Each structure stands twice: as structure tokens, then as C-alpha cells.
Amino acid sequence: MQFFEFTEEQELLRKAVREFAEAEVAPKAAEWDEQDYCPMELFPVMGELGINGIFTPEEYGGAGMGHVERAICIEEISRYSAGLGIALMTHHLGMSPILDFGTEDQKKKYLPELCAGTKLCGLAVTEPGGGSDFAGQKTTAELVDGQWVLNGRKCFITNHHADVSVITAVTGVDEKGRNQLSAFIVEKGTPGFSAGRKEHKLGLRGSVTGDLILNEVKIPEENIIGKVGAGAKIGMAAIGEVGRAGMSAICVGILRGCVEEAVKFANERVVYGKPISKLQAIQFEVANIRTEYEAAKMLLYYAAGKKDAKLPATTDFAIAKYYSTEGAVRASKRTMDLMGGYGVINEYPVGRFLRDALASIPSGGTSHVQQLIIAGNTLSAFKA
Amino acid sequence: MALKIVVCIKPVPDPDYYDKVSIDPVTKRITREGIPTIINPVDKNGIEAALKLKAQYGGKVTVITMAPPNATENLKEALAMGADEAVLLSDRAFGGADTLATSYTLAKGIEKIGGFDIVFCGTESADGATAQVSSQLGEWLGVPHLWSVFNMEASSEQCLRVKTKAENGFMEWDIKLPCLLGVSRELNKPRFISAMGIIKAKNKPISIWGKSDLDVEDERLGLTGSPTKAGAIFTPDLKRKGEMLTGSAEEIADAIIEKLRAAGVNIPTQGDACSIEGGAQ
Predict the structure, then answer these.
(1) The whole model's pTM is what?
(2) Which value does ipTM take for this structure?
(3) Do A69 and B195 touch (CB under 8 A)?
């Protein structure tokens, strides 16, 4: 086994994104949360820094790096604002089907502006009938006179205000009578296509989540991604290896926030004449918080490294996502406990960390869904 | 005009590790071993100024530092910001240099780079904070130099209009190229490093030059070439001290004036042009 360490370039990238996050994200994160404001003005800035197009090849306007680097960017930003973290991660999530399954024309048409951050991207799969019941989708797409006509409603869509949305819809049934899905690119402003109600979320505020309504939406035939019927594969690949990776990176960012806030508070808070960091009871909490962070970090970067090495990583990302989201909930609760009454005062970010961690659990599949994926793989992979 | 621009940077201890920084009790120098470094913050304003001029007029930006070998990390950061090439002056013989030996060595390094239109330095370093190197370097290079530059624009092909800070105001200068400018943090906002910049930096050259690569006189280098000898380093006692004065209001006022004068405060006596008629009540 090789020693696990980041390359010099990855360390420099982390430093660069951290400088950006400390200057442009940290001072405003609490305000974005309070006002549920999505800082769209930062997308062009992140575009210049290469963050939006971090894993997109240079020929399409990206930085040409990989998914380890993507995780670094999301972790550093989510250390201060998990809300901006999920807006960014969803932007990547929408771009990945175009990059991985799109035609050359689609890549050239959409990716450069998405990398630049002059346009926002999203992925819309979930419907009121359910998100994990992938094949049970009701949205339909029908090819009529050389145009796809889409009808239906999507819900819980982060970045539902996106300029470019990748949308899955039923295009037929297979020989066993199961729904056959396809994926499409739908641009904002297409007649009949609109963003519906915006959800009022517990956490990850500052990202926009809501409905997408498709009412006789006509798009060109060439806006299909991949082949007819490939929608399930395309959607699952994006969610499994880009969506869950992003949610895991967000929670690793929250976890680092917990470690740093806990240490800061424990060293500054003086009770009975000495900082509480001298108390064993507090040290036990600090150790637990740190362990959650390190474990989640290793799982995330191991899975991301596997993806960059072109190895199957869906189970690894499920494990990383399951552990880091639940770990972030545990650690932010522990950090609040460590801070006593100050933990619930909103001048400290820890209450926000807990809300953001809780809101991270359902995105990309709940913990129960991750457990099913992990168990499914385990029961076959470990069969004697 | 394609400009040849040189930017001097200095690796300084990362402020996150200030509690690990110590002073050697014998040499009275900062012990920096094992402490991660960052580019001296105001030097980044120098890099930014250079990159802006390059974007406007074309040319080449070279960053240079005199530091231990691990400073290549800091140079890579400067290259990722957009500088074209980097030079590290590193040799045991350069160690222990004060500002005079440092500026001499830097001047020799810049000489070897071969000609320049503008040299940028930060006004001062975050660790030593002597603020001497930029002016000394200007002297070694034999070019006009200005310090504490907070505004700069090209006024003609070969001339810059520059504003420098002064007490209660500023001074405005036209300075002819080639020249050296010691820039302040107010000059600009250094850019963030981009992922694309990091990738490009991979293929940019970093030259490492030691004593034998430079046309230098040995006795001007490092500790030998450093006339500065730190006497003692201490933290000044800034504790407040209270003193009760007794007497009438007038006596107390006189006593206060006397004590202030004794402490060096310049209070005019009666009869001076600016004295106040009347007196204390």
C-alpha cells in the first residue's frame, strides 16, 4: 500500500480555495443562512478560480483536474458555508451527465459557460412520488415532429433556478413493462418550463431548493443526453458518484468546522480558573469530534481517489456519504454540548452546522438508502 | 513596450504558527526551522502589481527570493498566481544575513537575471519588519526607488506616476524606468490562485542559484556581510501606572504639566507664539 497523501498541487489548491473561502465566504455565511440567500454573484468568481469546472477538461473551459480536487474545493467552501457548498456541488452534479454522456456539440455548447459560472446547472430527478423510486417517475417525454415534449413535475430540486437543467423523464417501457428513462437538457426560459415553489429548509439554507414544472415543454431532439432509455444509467451515475461525493465533501467541511470551533472554544472558555480544554470530559468530546472528521475525510478522499483512478466507487461513495453526514450530525451535537449554553447562540456557527448536517442526510439518498446500497454490495462481495 | 519585471518575495512564518516561533537567545535571530511559511502578505501586492502591468503592456514577470531550499513552495505559489519564472537564491553562505547582506545578494541575483524595467518589493516583512530591504536594493541596483507606494499608473512609455504615503498625506512622483518600488497593501488586492494557474505553474521554471552562480564578494554575504548586531530582544513593559496627585486644582495642573514635560511631551511655555492666554482656573 502506498502512503496516503495529497500531491503538492492538491495542497496548493486547498490553500488557494481556503484563501478564497476565508475572504469571500466566511464573513457572509451566517447572513446567507439567516436570509436564505444564494450568493449567485460568487459563481463567476469561482469560475475564474477554476472551481466550477474543476473536473471538466480544459478544452471545455475547465481546470482539467479530478474528483479529489473537487472534494477539496467543496470541503474548503463548506467549512464556512455548507449552503454555498451544495449549490456548487449541484452545479457539478448537473454538469457531469453532459460531460460523461453528452455529445461533442452538447459539451461545447454548455460546459464553457457553466465552467465560467455565467450560467448555473442542476440535475432534476426527484418527483413528488419519490426520489429513490427511480423507475417510478411520472414525468414523460415524447418525440413529436422532431421535438421532445416534456410534461411533469420535479420536486426538492436544488438549483431549481438553474439556467441549464438535466432532467430525467419516462420515454417508454421495456419488454418487462418497466419504465424506460431518458435524460434531457432543458434551458431556462423554454416555454412551459418554470421553477415552482421554493422550499423553506431547516439547513443548507442559501441554496435554492424547489419544484420544477414542465408543461408541454418542447426541446430540440438533439437535447437528449446519450441514447433513448439511458436515463436511469446516466442519472444513477451522476447521483452515485458525483452527488454523494459532493454531499460527503460538504459534511467533511462541516466536520472540520466542528473541530476548529470546538478547539477554539475549549481553549478560550475559562471556568473555575482554567480553560475547559484542560478538563478530561471536554478532551473526550474533542477526541470524538476529531475522530469523526478524520474517518469521514479518509472515506471521502479514498472514494474520490478511486473514481479518479477510473475504478468503480459507488459503494465507497455510499459509505463515505453515510458516515460523513451522520458523523457531522454527531459531531456538531457534541460541539454544541461542549459549548454549553453558547452552543445554541446563533452568533456561533455550530447550531448552523447541526442544521446543515441534518439537511445533508436526505440529499443524494437518505442514510437508509445508503445502507441498502452498502448492504447490497457487501452481501454479494463478501459471499464465501 | 514589453516590460521585464522582477518581484522580490520573502517566505515568512505562517501566522497560524506564531506560537511556535522563538528567538535564538544567542544570535537574537528568529528561529524559523520547521515552521510552515507563507509569502510575506505585502509581497503579494507586488506580484499583483507586476501581473497587472504585464497584462497591460506585455512582458515577463520573474519572482526572486533569498531563502532556504523549501522556499520553492512559496515560489510555486507565485508562479500559480501568474508569474512566468522564479529564482531561488539559496546557499549556506547566505544564511544569517541582515538587510544589507540580503539586499546585496538580491541585487546580484537580479543582475544575473539580466536587466529589468521595474523591481517590486513589499514595503516590509511580516516577521522582521525592518522595511529596509527595498530602499537598500534600489541603491545596490543604482536605480531610482520609492517606498510605501499605494497608487501607481503608467504616465508614459518610460515613466510611472506613483503616489507614496506620507505623514498626514501623500506624495506624488513621476519615476523613470528602470526603477524599484516598495509597495504597500493599499496598492491593490492580490488575486486568488486559480486551479488553472496551479496546473500552468507545474511547467514554469524555478532556477536555484548558490554563491558560485553569482558574481559576489564573499565578505558581503550572510552573517559575515551583516553589520547589524542585535543587542537584546525584549517585550517592552506597557503596563499602565496610576499616580495620585494632591493639592489645589492649580497645583495639580502645574504638576501634570511638569510630569508631561519630564516624559518628553512638548508643551509650550508662556510667551511662546502659540501659548494660551489666561491660565488654568
Answers:
(1) 0.89
(2) 0.88
(3) yes
